[in-house]
Fold this sequence. Notes:
three-stranded antiparallel beta sheet; glycoprotein; membrane; X8
Amino acid sequence: xxxxxxxxxxxxxxxxxxxxxxxxSVTTNVKTWCVAKPSARNDSLxxxxxxxCSVNPEECTQLKDDHPCFxxxxxxxxxxxxxxxxxxxxxSHQWNxxxxxxxxxxxxxxxxxxxxxSGGDTVLDLSTSGKWCVAKPMTSDxxxxxxxxxxxxxxxxxxxxxGGGCYYPDTLINHASVIMNLYYxxxxxxxxxxxxxxTGCIVMKxxxxxECKYKF
Length: 216
């Protein structure tokens, strides 16, 4: 009888400890946005833009000439804006930002100047989420190059050099994002380490692709 009581006490204690451990993972409401992967192919971006704008045509009027979000007139920015409008309109579920693995859920507001990316609250458990740093989709080429030059003074940039695993696609936004993330990870994933003069964006989905593995 005594052994049975002892066993029950041990079981009760184990269940209590387990519940405390599960309780450490607390969900919270945070604002999220959807942006295109820096490595996304141009044809994929165009397909995302066309599809998202067919669902939310009113939101996409902001991308027309003489409207706040027309500039920069780049496919990755226009696609990101439309993808985010779709993501928010569909309820901000993680699967609404997949776009055949060409979308990333961002914890940093991609808005700039008079161009506002709508954002909504999402219930997330950030204690189990990874964090990576990429370039914001509207970042100009000169700022992307400046970010590469700065980060390469602090981390090894072999990944984006010819022959490196992240050389292709050979675009500034892809190369900058890879190196900005290396710098961010090397500096303890502090938010300010992904600031880069307000051109960095913290995302909670691994931007890795093919042979290019983003450090985490």
